[in-house]
């Protein structure tokens, strides 16, 4: 029952379970009632999204150094007690339930979900292999 890291809006995998959107904003122009049926997410958890300032920084990152700076700052944001508890909860649930977490970005390597993958792994989460 490992957690999957997914791109929101893509077709769901078999046995994916609950899809959690870790994004700052809901998908534009999509009524709330259609978020799940259009494969965006079943549950919105913006608390695990980067701050607005960091989203801008990530989008502007052109070099590896700029990307590493974003990762460092995002990891720092995730050390807040409330965010840490959410990460611990997801890690624990990954050993007992089917679910996925995701973001809209096309390239996971340049998306906060790659960092979420690492943060969950560090907390002992069971993750689906890429």
From TrEMBL:
Pfam families given in the database record: DUF488-N3a
This protein's name: DUF488 domain-containing protein
Domain DUF488 per the UniProt entry, residue ranges: 3-124
Domain of life of the source: Bacteria
Natural source organism: Geothermobacter hydrogeniphilus
Record InterPro entries: DUF488-N3a
Lineage: Bacteria, Pseudomonadati, Thermodesulfobacteriota, Desulfuromonadia, Desulfuromonadales
């Amino acid at each position: 029952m490992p957690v999957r890291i997914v791109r929101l809006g893509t077709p769901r995998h078999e046995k994916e379970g609950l899809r959690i959107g870790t994004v700052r904003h809901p998908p534009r122009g999509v009524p709330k009632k259609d978020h799940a049926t259009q494969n965006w997410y079943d549950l919105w958890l913006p608390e695990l999204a980067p701050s607005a300032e960091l989203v801008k920084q990530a989008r502007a990152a052109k070099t590896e150094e700029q990307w590493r700076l974003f990762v460092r700052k995002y990891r720092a944001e995730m050390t807040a007690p409330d965010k840490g508890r959410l990460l611990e909860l997801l890690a624990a649930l990954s050993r007992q339930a089917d679910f996925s977490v995701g973001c809209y970005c096309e390239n996971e390597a340049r998306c906060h979900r790659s960092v979420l993958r690492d943060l969950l792994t560090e907390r002992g989460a069971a993750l689906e292999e890429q």
